[in-house]
Design goal:
The chain is α/β, with parallel strands linked by helices and 350 residues long. It is 41% helix and 19% strand. Strands 8-7-6-5-4-3-10-9 form an 8-stranded parallel β-sheet. A 5-stranded mixed β-sheet has the order 11-12-13-14-15, covered by helices on one side. The protein has a two-stranded antiparallel sheet with strand order 1-2. The longest helix has 17 residues, at 207-223.
């Protein structure tokens, strides 16, 4: 897949941009000042596959809490700061791997220079986070409403503030809750700068709706070769963000780790409880790290053929099903044994 060549930015022990893998990010929903709760949530996110985690820093107590959090968490921890440069300085001092700010609202060139120098001294990149809900008043008045061109102008203005402070260890996000606006903004900006892009649809919504919007926006841009790291923003357990993010990366060819699961939508030929079986198989394999494609099909006539690219799969009949491997039938089993028989065959695969 052709991918835009961007700068390679180091974030602790991983890289964003260049030929590096597309990483998955999330943000804690706990009160950062509650260290144990925050650590617990981050660990759950790491198990799910989170590469980078962001924590809100609303006050100095939260900035101080980062000292213990960064000490115990091996993945990069990002501090999310608004308005108060002192919170950013304290977060940098306490071990964060990346800083997320809008330079334009941090308090003037002198304070931006202080942050830029502190980040340079510790090798910490800054993500410029622009979104449709926080555009500068003059830019909003210029375009009359939120537009891709206005979002890009805002992003470039913030980039210039950091570049004027001799800082270019930059990652950019330019998000909108409107998918079309978000996509066009990234397309325009991608053609103007070579900084790595952090993709996301902001305020995407609940798990169901937000996953659909994010899949279109993030997945569409990744398919065009735009994007270096992603965050699926959902109203719900942030572990769901990681699950959705991993599926988006799988669907766009950026992630080969873990089960690729396919199943047919059922039709009038289906004579087994395919929906139940598909859900049971998907649940049983949710934590599997095997790099295989598994198919659950409802029809013994077309199933093995339609899913012949699958490494292993099942196709239902009338009270029974066929286990097949790469389109070749292995054996016939009763419907009640289909799931266990499939899992048994999967266990045999390397």
């Amino acid at each position: 897949m052709l991918r835009k060549d961007t700068r390679k930015i180091r974030v602790k022990d991983i890289y964003i941009g260049g030929e590096s893998k597309v990483t998955i990010q999330s943000m804690t929903t706990t009160d950062t000042r509650n260290v144990e709760a925050t650590l617990g949530q981050i660990r759950a996110l790491m198990v799910a596959g989170c590469d980078i985690i962001r924590c809100a820093v609303p006050d100095m107590e939260a900035a101080e809490a980062l000292k213990e959090i960064t000490k115990q968490i091996p993945i990069p921890v990002v501090a999310d700061i608004h308005f108060d440069y002192r919170l950013a300085l304290k977060s940098i001092e306490n071990g964060i791997a990346k800083l997320r700010i809008n330079p334009g609202n941090i308090g003037g060139e002198e304070k931006i220079k202080l942050l830029a120098d502190a980040c340079t001294a510790r090798g910490i990149p800054i993500r410029i986070g622009v979104n449709s809900g926080s555009m500068e008043k003059d830019i909003l008045e210029k375009y009359g409403r939120v537009t891709p061109e206005g979002l890009v102008e805002s992003a470039l203005r913030n980039v210039e503030l950091l570049e004027n402070a001799n800082f270019n260890n930059i990652i950019i996000s330019i998000k909108s809750s409107d998918v079309i606006t978000m996509m066009e903004s990234y397309r325009i900006l991608s053609g103007m700068v070579d900084y790595p892009m952090h993709l996301g649809v902001t305020e995407a919504g609940t798990i169901w709706r937000g996953t659909i919007k994010s899949s279109i926006g993030i997945g569409g841009l990744l398919s065009e070769g735009i994007g270096d790291t992603i965050r699926v923003s959902l109203t719900g357990d942030p572990v769901e963000e990681i699950k959705a993010g991993r599926e988006i990366l799988k669907a766009t060819g950026h992630l080969k780790e873990g089960i690729e699961f396919v199943s047919c939508p059922t039709c009038g030929r289906t004579q087994i409880d395919l929906i139940r079986i598909a859900n049971e198989v998907e649940e049983a394999l949710k934590d599997s790290k095997k790099n295989i494609k598994v198919a659950v099909m409802g029809c013994v006539v077309n199933g093995p053929g339609e899913a012949k690219e699958a490494d292993i799969g099942i196709a239902g009949g009338n009270g029974f099903g066929l286990i097949f491997k790469k389109g070749v039938i292995l054996r016939k089993v009763s419907e009640s044994e289909l799931v266990s028989a499939l899992l048994e065959e999967i266990d045999k695969l390397n």
